[in-house]
Amino acid sequence: MATQAVNRSSDSLAIRDTEVTVVKSDAEKPSKNIIPASYNLGLGDEDPTEEELHGPTALRRVSAPIPWSVYTVAFVELCERFSYYGTQVLYSNFVNHSLPLPAPYGPAGSHHNTGAGGSTSQGVSGALGKGPETANGINTFNTFWCYCVPLLGAYVADEYWGRYKTICWSIGFAILGHVILVISAIPPVITNTNACFGVFMLGVIVMGFGTGGFKPNISALVVEQIPAVNLKVRTLPSGERVVVDPTITQSRIYHYFYLFINIGALVGQIGMAYAEKYVGFWLSFLLPTLMFMTTPFVMWWGRHRYRQSPPQGSVTSKAVKAFMYVMRERWSWNPFVFWKRTHDGTLWESVKPSNIEPRFRPKWMTFDDAWVDEVRRGFAACAVFCWYPLYWLAYGQLTNNFTSQASTMTLHGVPNDVVNNLDPFALIIFIPICDALLYPGLRKMGIQFTAIKKITAGFWLAALAMVWAAVIQYYIYKTSPCGTDANNCYTEDGSVNPSPLNVWAQTGCYVLVAFSEIFASITSLEYAYSKAPRNMRSLVQAISLFTNAISAAIAEALNPLAKDPLLIWNYGVFAVLAFVGGCGFIWQFWQLDMEEDALNNLPEGHVEANEKMAQFEAAEIGPVRGTPTLCTTCHISAIFRLRPMIASEMQMPGNGCIGCLCFTPQPNPPAYSNPNQALRVRIKLPRRRSRLWLFQLQPSAQRSKASHLSPAPENAHTAKVSRMSQRKPRGPTFDVTTPPARIPLAAP
């Protein structure tokens, strides 16, 4: 559908890819759906040809500008990640190590009542003293829990509350969890091991519940602030013709979104590690809580400024039913037969409504063909995510075993849980470099570094990081005073007796993991958003995040490897799994990589979530729902019952629409007293029902005089249409062959 905006001095309409947005004048308060004027595609914008997309004459691809609202959403994510990572980094020491001995027996500067390790180089903070295996298990459980809940949060957002409301409630739960963690670390509680452990686990569960509802929706909300348009050719002021690529725009947004994430993680982890070491756990849990308490104010500020998608009802169940429908005759216990039946190129064609006679369509089939294509694309994205647990297994070592490994090395006064901040520090440096230099340079050379290629590179870099960690662990065992029992090596005063190996030898691990995140983790966010149907974006984001939970469950099964003397095998196993995962990934999805542009340029579909409403529409408009006589724009106005102001201004000359609801020209057009009457004649709606629909176009004065007539019986419908077309008009008339003049309309 052509994409353009009608600029007026007062309220105007901007239509973008089946999405209608009311743009207010400067003098009025902005609508929550407002979009910067820079996003209005001009009349000169065109759809690109195949030669302009591929080959030696392909045009350069560029990003659209990024609106200010994106950065405010990213700031909310920064605060949330500050609070999450600022507390998560403490879990390992809090559970692994015991409280320091009371003075004067403990290390200098340590505090028995707060868990602070003190200022000595090898003073390590602690509280519960349950060992590295339990600490690793709790970290793994926390990861599993935080990435299971997103499925619930996404379902609630997509079907009931919407993303904005779900985010606000999730923030409330997360703040409550933070407060409980602070209580677990105050001196009267932390010195009682059993009470401390119970309160601590309660805080972890409650905070994880809030985090799980927050993550999938904030990731979708940040990119929702830009319009969803297809590839367009635009002429720059310099005269250069370029392709405005929405995937590049989304990629840039997610790169800077991830940059904000890691700024919050870096500051939170470093600051809280030092607060833990010198003051105690109560302060290191309190500061993230205070930081997170700023987010409700930002969300309140954006309540009318953020572009939001309303909840769509039970579209998830329809997607599942559509999948089961296409698979009903393709199941087979024979793997070869099953693969052949599902890869014959007609899998999703069988569920498209245009291929099924209306009398044979199930009642739940209230969507169009374009939505089926979007669902197919979303299922393909979910298939891509199936390989991600093997990647997250390697990445999970960052916050678990890497921290324990650092505690067995010579720290030179640096807290062991500060060293893993090399990862966000490297990301802060390399994300802008990739965005400004690496990716544009590859595009100029004609190399399309697509999502599938990026993800494969991320898998292989994670495997290299695990190999590096295995080599370091080998030398720790070789040089530790306690040999292969390095995690239980202490001096007489209770401080760690480390290996002489310098802790900064871990730098290579963190840098390699950082690059793997840029290629694999960031790409998973943009891939989940760009490939999901609009009304299922939070759910597909949640499925992407859920792979972390699957990874955590696998890691829990492999947890016996996370102890001396098996840590070399631990890193080696994860290296092999990540490498094999990358090889299998590129082998399976190489063909999908070839279809990248086609998948990104699919038209947006429509689904009616309410089956009763869909049946009502089918009865009123007919099985074809007006498509033979209405253009796409006006068809959507009928389906969504747009307000009078919107429907009266819906003029799309480039789309074959010649006036209000694109009435077909007639040799001797009848005159009607109002467009509502013309609409009834054109699509044969009973009079009572047409008055109830929100695209009534007559002024309020005429509406107040309207009489309430009973709907005509079906056997008299044709006669009634004839009588209405011959009725003498009263008041202003509307010629259906020309666009209606602008009339003063009542406020919606």
UniProtKB/TrEMBL annotation:
Database matches in InterPro entries: MFS_trans_sf (IPR036259), POT_fam (IPR000109), PTR2_symporter_CS (IPR018456)
Pfam families documented for this protein: PTR2
Membrane topology qualifier: Multi-pass membrane protein
Keyword Transmembrane: yes
Gene Ontology molecular-function annotations: dipeptide transmembrane transporter activity
Source organism, top-level taxon: Eukaryota
GO cellular component: plasma membrane
TM helices/strands, residue ranges: 167-186, 256-275, 281-302, 378-398, 418-438, 459-477, 503-527, 539-562, 568-590
Keyword Transmembrane applies: yes
Region Disordered, annotated ranges: 703-748
Entry keywords, A to Z: Membrane, Transmembrane, Transmembrane helix, Transport
UniProt-listed SUPFAM superfamilies: MFS general substrate transporter
Entries under PROSITE patterns matching the protein: PTR2_2 (PS01023)
Subcellular location: Membrane
Gene3D superfamilies: MFS general substrate transporter like domains (1.20.1250.20)
Family statement drawn from the similarity comment of this UniProt entry: Belongs to the major facilitator superfamily. Proton-dependent oligopeptide transporter (POT/PTR) (TC 2.A.17) family.
Name assigned to this protein: Uncharacterized protein
Species assigned in the record: Penicillium antarcticum
